[in-house]
Specification:
Structural class: alpha+beta
Strand order of the largest sheet: 2-3-1-4
Number of strands: 4
Largest sheet: 4 strands, antiparallel
Order of helices and strands: EHHEEHEHHHH
Strand content: 15-25%
Shape: globular
Number of helices: 7
Radius of gyration: 25 Å
Low-confidence stretches: none
């Protein structure tokens, strides 16, 4: 018996249009705000299926039908959900999520659906969701203590400075090396 292979996509809903609207809150909290309670898993699936059909037509519609697409976890508080999709069609769903630009409800807010992790098991996707939620809490605490100049650096972190050894690379010429086993000599040797 053959096991059906699936992929689990961990997706984060971000609200970048809200940046700067709440100066009293850290930017990390504003862009990662909770999703409205009107959005439920069935509305989310309808929106994803509509976008897949819009992008890929009948081929895409057929690829995600048949029970292969499902929401396994959805959190309004963290704006995170986990999708289960067949391994052959997960790239189609990923592309459709990339092109979605608002919450799939009536008068939905503009947003970005960002696939942050792809996994072969539900357990690894859940572990990644917990790890990211924990990191988000720490980032919000640190962002509240200190604000940097750019709002995007608050969200994505400060760029790392290259180490000194990477910045001061020195190019040197190698001494002339004589190749003992040249092609000519190798051609003259026979196996006997």
């Amino acid at each position: 018996m053959v096991r059906i292979k699936e992929r689990y996509l961990l997706v984060k809903i971000l609200y970048p249009n809200e940046l700067g609207s709440r100066p009293d809150l850290p930017d990390v909290v504003v862009i990662n705000q909770p999703t409205t309670d009107q959005l439920n898993p069935s509305a989310l699936l309808r929106g994803i299926r509509a976008e897949v059909t819009n992008l890929f037509g009948d081929y895409g519609s057929g690829a995600v039908e048949g029970g292969s697409l499902g929401v396994k976890y959805f959190s309004h508080a963290t704006s995170t959900f986990i999708l289960r999709i067949s391994r052959s069609a997960y790239r189609l769903v990923w592309a459709a999520l990339t092109f979605m630009n608002s919450i799939p409800i009536k008068n939905g807010k503009p947003c970005i659906f960002r696939v942050v992790h792809v996994s072969g098991t539900m357990r690894k996707a859940e572990e990644e969701a917990v790890r990211r939620a924990r990191n988000l809490i720490f980032a919000a605490q640190n962002d509240g203590k200190e604000k940097t100049d750019g709002s995007l650096s608050n969200i994505f972190g400060k760029p790392e400075r290259p180490r000194r050894s990477q910045r001061d690379a020195v190019m040197t010429d190698l001494p002339d090396i004589v190749d003992v086993d040249s092609d000519l000599e190798m051609g003259e040797i026979s196996d006997g």
